[in-house]
Amino acid sequence: MSDTHIDVPVPVPLEGVCPLRDVLDAVGNKWGVLTIVLLGERRHRYNELHKSMPGISQRILTRTVRSLARDGFISRIVYPTVPPRVDYELTDLGRGLLQQLNALNAWADAHHEEMVAARRREDAGQGTQMP
Amino acid sequence: MSDTHIDVPVPVPLEGVCPLRDVLDAVGNKWGVLTIVLLGERRHRYNELHKSMPGISQRILTRTVRSLARDGFISRIVYPTVPPRVDYELTDLGRGLLQQLNALNAWADAHHEEMVAARRREDAGQGTQMP
DNA sequence: CGGTATCCACCGGGATACTG
DNA sequence: CAGTATCCCGGTGGATACCG
After folding, report:
1. Contacts from B3-9 at CB under 8 Å and sequence distance 24+?
2. Tens digits of per-residue pLDDT, A22-79?
3. What was the pLDDT predicted at A128?
4. Which residue of A has its CA nearest to B15?
5. B100 and A104: CB-CB below 8 Å?
6. Cβ atoms B78, A129 nearer than 8 A
7. What pTM, to 2 d.p., does this model score?
8. What residues in A contact B77, CB-CB < 8 Å?
9. Which of A8, A43, B7, B45 is at a distance of 20 to 30 A from B123, taking alpha carbons?
């Protein structure tokens, strides 16, 4: 067992009981979708991802890719060279997920104006209705 | 001379910039999807939802439905009676979202075995590969 | 009945510094 | 280059009690 740990855990909880929850937990976090989309364009190495994700810290990027790799959406390819090189790319499973995200994204694009409008209404106090 | 002023603290409400993020934030939380699904079956009143969502507290249920209502996915109908009665039902927007969730759910059902298998592999130490 | 009011634990996300 | 090691902050989710 290695004694170095970045916290990319999730061993115990009732993980895996609801497939949809698993997927949402996997990519619903702050950088999951962007990571999948970037890797959908082409294979990236660590620093390429880092530069394409403005604002993310190394710690969080590492956690994100490790988590996605654990779930089988991306693969982590380590070249045993010096200096080290690590590439990330989508797996077949990840490509399938990307298609679903694209579909959801299309729907979101088409309807997010309604969401924004609803928020304005609600925030203006026109929320509840009385039949 | 005006000294440095590097610190631009970013006013938080960058809500609404990315449609897909908005959707994921809206229903990616712990009880969002279940709420949408339940209301997709039929209109529910507050306590009906509560009984159908084992483990949720009143506070969280209230927050969940209020948030979904604010985003326009469900409507909140208040009957000015005593004792009070409040119904929740999907809006057209919410029904559209439910269809997307159903699609994603179908994909998740079809592929979550691969996710679980990937996790087992990863957790067993067969994670990285070296070409 | 349908909520609020408090209080609190936990975890995701981040800033910064250091390393094999 | 590709990470770790620490420390920290805010927000989500929860437990419990009370209210109009």
Report:
1. none
2. 999 999 999 999 999 999 999 999 999 999 999 999 999 999 999 999 999 999 999 9
3. 65
4. A116
5. yes
6. yes
7. 0.89
8. 128-131
9. A43
Does the nearest atom of strand D lie within 7 Å of A46's Cβ? yes
Q: Cβ(A74)–Cβ(A91) under 8 Å?
A: yes
B119 interfaces chain A, CB cutoff of 8 Å? yes
Chain A interface test: which of B107, B120, B123 (most A C-beta within 10 Å): B107
How many C-beta neighbours within 10 Å does residue A128 have? 12
When CB atoms are compared, the residue of A78, A93, A105 closest to B20 is A105
Strand-pair partners of B87? B45, B77
What's the fold here for domain B19-123? Arc Repressor Mutant, subunit A (1.10.10)
Model pLDDT for residues A92-130, shown as the tens digit of each residue: 999 999 999 999 999 999 999 999 999 999 888 766 666
List of chain A residues whose C-beta atoms are within 8 Å of the C-beta of residue B93: 111, 114-115, 118
